[in-house]
Design a protein that fits this description.
The chain is about 55% helix and about 15% strand. By secondary structure, the chain is α+β, with helices and mostly antiparallel strands. It has a 5-stranded mixed sheet. Strands 2-1-4-3 form a 4-stranded antiparallel sheet, with helices on one face. Helix 5 packs across helix 6 and helix 9 (about 355-375) packs antiparallel against helix 11. The radius of gyration is 53 Å and the shape is elongated.
Length: about 475
Amino acid sequence: MGLKKPTSYQWRLFFPLVALLWFTIAAMVTFQHKREKTYRSETIKQQLEFINSRVVFAYEHNADITPFNRFINDYFSHSVYKDVRVSVYNTKTDNLLFSFGDPIKHKKTEADKRPNFYYSEQVSHDGNVIVYTAMPYTVSLAEALAPDSTMWITIITLAIIVTIIAFGSTYYIGKTVKFLRDFAKQAATEKDLTTTYKFPKDELGDVSQQIINLFNSKTKAIEDSEKEHKVALAAIEEKSRMKRELTNNISHEIKTPVGIIKGYIDTIADDPNMSDDTKNHFITKTQEQINRLCDLLNDISTITRLSETTQAIPTEKLNFHDIVYTIANDVKESGMLKGMEFSFDIPLNCYINGNNALLNSTILNLIKNSVAYSRGTQIRLFTLNDSFDSYTFRYYDNGTGVEEEHIPYLFDRFYRIDAGRSRKAGGTGLGLPIVKNTILTHGGKITVRNRPQGGLEFTFTLPKF
């Protein structure tokens, strides 16, 4: 699991600040809301209690309650009190003397009282009359108790303004801190500090810019010298690595034929009475290994010369058709094809700028590789494309090809798909590397792949003359 990206200084400052401001606003709003709701609730209750007291007062002073009843009906019918219920009972006879709204049950239980927002009862001083007043919790009552919408608009507007101010302040501070952090990181890694930083137009920005200028002046010469030193070291190390690798591979490859030759000679020397047929057999095998050793040394010389040459190889105007034609006749007459058929299709006037010996070696190495390992019957070389400055050629056989996992390594020195079979076939492991280095030395390119129809396919370019 990757490490989480650290939160910027701006946001680490912005969020707590906004949270604190919003918390303060929320606390003030909550306090004010509760205070206003309590005030409105008390106002409503006082109005309802006033009804009770007025009814009792009218009874005790033998006043006509009809005008008061009319007043309640007119005053409350279009207000938040329109759902109020007032009932007056005679406590002696339990008769309903007066009712506004639905009559309230006489002698209510606690369960009857709970659904109401407000419930009260008041008994006259002589105990003969009791007044019940109840206010159910309705939508209109809830709206009356709710804070004014203007209050919420004011609160939201205030919160937005506070947030914008906090963002602007933290952005300015965070931007300055970010610039300083980036500068410190670059300075720590000694990178080029010729940057496009736009520091604030204040004392901190001026100091930061001066530090960058001084640091760049100091490190420019050091960076240039280190760059040249690294390039030189890399070149030397790569050259040393390639030499070590080549030396180890050469040592390994030479030991095999030398060991076999020594074994044959020791066998002949240790048995003076060996029959002529046996002796001739060992001598023939020794000659084969000596020839293989010579081929290996020749290939080593060629690949070393191609890899380490610091000057361009000598080139001349060559007719590639004539080169391939000559090779085709030679391999056919020599029996090198071992039953395979080599054909080509090269234009008669296919003039290239190349080295005759190296190009002959390249074509022969491709043919030898096909004969030794392809297990096919046909080899073909033809011109694939003719561009402004180069020719593109394709060479292929109709053999078995190789497994895809080996394709990227076919041009590596001494790489063998099957080491035992390769040595038995007499290969040095340098044929295809010589082919690649020859093409690259001529300024061309070469690729290899398995043909869909079977066999290996090489595509390479050579420069026109």
